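R.M. (postdoc): so does anyone remember the format we settled on? I'll just put the structure tokens first.
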């Protein structure tokens, strides 16, 4: 038995219906930048051998930010009609 290959969503929406997506996408871009900054700082501290409370706090904040990104990305999913 083979596995059915999924096709990407191909839903043509009216530009008026897509207008709400742009601010969400902009917010996501900013959040991805912040997440990259967190990850860079965590990697830098880990490289220097830091194992302080601050590293744990940065990791927790990065995870929280990643969850927020996932929530916003869910808004961009268009259901198949």
């Amino acid at each position: 038995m083979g596995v059915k290959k999924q096709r990407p969503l191909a839903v043509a929406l009216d530009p008026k219906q897509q207008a709400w997506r742009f601010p969400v996408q902009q917010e996501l871009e900013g959040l991805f930048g912040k997440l990259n900054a967190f990850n860079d700082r965590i990697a830098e501290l880990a490289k220097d051998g830091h194992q302080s409370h601050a590293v744990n706090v940065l990791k927790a904040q990065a995870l929280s930010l990643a969850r927020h990104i996932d929530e916003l990305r869910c808004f961009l999913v268009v259901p198949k009609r």
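R.M.: ...and that's the designed sequence above, right after the tokens. Also worth knowing: The radius of gyration is 18 Å. The chain has three helices and no strands.
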